[in-house]
Structure formats: C-alpha cells, structure tokens
Amino acid sequence: MQGKLISNTLSFSGMGKSEKRVQRKRTGVNTPRMISIGVGILIFAVWLYISVTGVVDPKFIPTIQSVWDALVNISIEGYKGSTLLQHLGASFFRLFVAFGLAILAAVPLGLACGQSEKARAALEPIVEFIRPLPPLAYYTLLVLWMGIENESKIALLFLACFAPIYVACVAAVKKIPAAYVNAATTLGASDRQVFWRVILPYTAPDIFTGIRTAMGHGYSTLVAAEMVAAASGIGWMVLDASNWLRSDVIFAGIIVMGVTGILIDKILRLAERKLVPWKGKL
Question: Which DSSP string do the residues of 161-176 spell out, in sequence order?
C-alpha cells in the first residue's frame, strides 16, 4: 500500500500533461522527418552525380560502386587479415566493456553525490578536472602504463564515458522537487523507499540522457584511440586505409561507423521508452 501511495506522488503532477498528449491529434505529414529524408536524398544525389561525371578525382571522393565493392570485399575477404565483422567486434568489445563499467560506477556515485554535499565535494574536483581534457591528451600515459592492448583503450573509454553519466545523475538529483520527497516521507516512506520510489524514477530520464551522451562520446573516442595505437578495429582500418590512399575503404569504414552509431543510439532510445515510459510526464 505504501509503495502505491509513494508512486502516486510522481504521477499526479504529470497527469494533466499526459491527458493533453493523448488528446493531441496529428495532422498532415511529419515535416521534420521529411526534411531529414530529403537531405539524405540530396547528399546521395550529389555523390551519384560526382560518381557518374567524374568531376572529382576518385582518389578523393570514390564512386558509389567502388565503395560498395570495397564494403563487400572487406566483409567477405577481410582487410589485413580480419573481416569487417571482426574489426567491428574488436571495437565493440572495447566500447561496451568500458561503457558498462562506466554505468556501474557513475550512476551510483552520481546519485550519492547528488544527495550528499560532502561526497560531491570529495569527487567533483576530480571529475571536473578530467571532464574537459581531450581523451587523447592522457591516452599516451595510459599506453605507457598499460600497453597498446585492450586494457589502455578500455580505461580511456571508461574515463570518457564516466563524466557525462556522473554529471547527469548529480544534476538530476539536485533538481528533484522537495515536495515529492516530503510527500513520500509524510506517507511514511523510509529512506530506502524514497530512493527507489521517488529519487530513482524521477532521475531515470536524465540518467538515460547522460548514458546516450556518454555512448556518443565514447564511440568517437574509441575511433580516435584506435587510430593512435591499435592493430585492429574499425578506426584502425580507416587509418590504415588512408596510408595506402584507399579512399573506397575509408568511405566504407566511415559509413559503417555512422550507421552503427545511429543503430546504437536507436537501441538506447528504445530501451529508454521501455524502461522510462513516464519521461516528459513529470
């Protein structure tokens, strides 16, 4: 009974907004989506024109056919001894291990520091010092300490992903309306119940925003790290292809990185809709 009453403290404030959204009707076409599709078609049309007319040297902008052939070739026969899936597997292993560790560390620390000024005072100077630093600035130190294998890359990606999640968690806790906590306490909720029934549900949307931001930051850092010191991975493949003026492989790698990045973000958005259906209703 207590849990139900505590949950209601979150639902009352968003009830009016929810009813308005249900009553809102869509009219006409989805203009933003049509604009996005139109921009994509325009870019492809320009590329197709360049491919057909040859107005630009293929060494700089390869034809669509050559990029497709390169993509098929590296998918089947591989590039420098590894297929495209193997390069992606090496990259994703580094990324997801570091990303998972960052979530496990940053979420509880961020929520704790958001509630405790003393804990925040102890940890925040370290986070604020590391957060603005370009990850590659201290990657050389990590390579010296851990070598060029996966350990240094995972450590780098962990640091890159940690800060956005931590900052999002702290900010989310600090903006919880005091009335929510007071209402739950008045109804007889314990500190643990307040955390699980009020604090965590209220902060979950912002936590997911931090997680999505961290994934984008981590993916770009991963590619940069593989270009500096690696012997496998999608970033290394693109860099190595540039050394041999293989613009077809470079374009294929960039397209793969872009598509996989979009897919990862779509998966995170889907997980957010499933796990945090009350986002925007508080």
Answer: HHHHHHHHHHHHHHTS
Q: Please report, as a single letter, which amino acid is at residue 256.
A: V
Residues of the chain predicted below pLDDT 70: 1-29, 280-282
User: Residues 101-158: pLDDT tens digits?
Assistant: 999 999 999 998 988 888 888 888 888 888 888 887 888 888 888 887 888 899 999 9
Alpha-carbon distance of 208 to 38, in angstroms, equals: 30
The DSSP bridge partners found for residue 82 are 79
Angle in degrees, 0-180, between the axes of helices 84-115 and 117-130, rounded to the nearest 10: 140
> What is the pTM for the complete model shown?
0.79
2-24+59-275: CATH homologous superfamily?
MetI-like (1.10.3720.10)
For residue 214, what are the contacts with CB-CB under 8 A and spacing of at least 6? 99, 102, 106, 160, 161, 162, 163, 164, 165
Residues whose CB falls within 8 Å of the CB of residue 230, separated by 6 or more in sequence, listed in order? 148, 153, 236
